[in-house]
Amino acid sequence: MDTPLTSAAPVHPPAVKRARTIWQRRIRDPIVVQLTQGITPEKIALTIAVGSACALFPVFGVTSIICFIAALVLRLNQPIIQILNQLLLPVHVATFVLCVRLGETLFRAPTGDRLELHPRKIYQEYFESFWSHPIQALTHYFKDNADSVFYSIVAWAILLPIYVPLVYYALRPVMRGIVKVKAEVAAKQLVSPPRTDPPIP
Asked: Domain limits of the chain?
């Protein structure tokens, strides 16, 4: 007598994981981790606002130190600030040009005294040996371009009290939304019964 055949459980192909973007790995995930470890959304928004402002300080080679000091003094998140400092490097070049030109305009610097804004030339002349001789490179740069450095820092300081509140108040509701979504997902997982597969007939 033949034994009845039992229907086998359907076999589902394993889900294919999509490649994670650099935004997810370098920005979103660290922020979400910090939010789930008790840091408030307001603190994260302030960290991003202050950290990005320090990362755009218009002097090359010193932003990591400035970010570190700002995070230490204001008790902000060091990893997020340093990640921002690295990711904003392309924007830093544009901000440098903006602050130099704005400062020179504010102080009405003569055309002949204005800094020649050729990033590659500036890098090769002053910062190519920065990692081996940082003090010497910065001293050389400040000595040759003292006026332009001063003008750019003043321009950055003028923009700072406008930039930081704008970024902070723009990001605060976003950070609160992330916390709310995480809380709702966690609540649903606690309320929902564990999923069990139907018994095989």
From this structure: 22-176
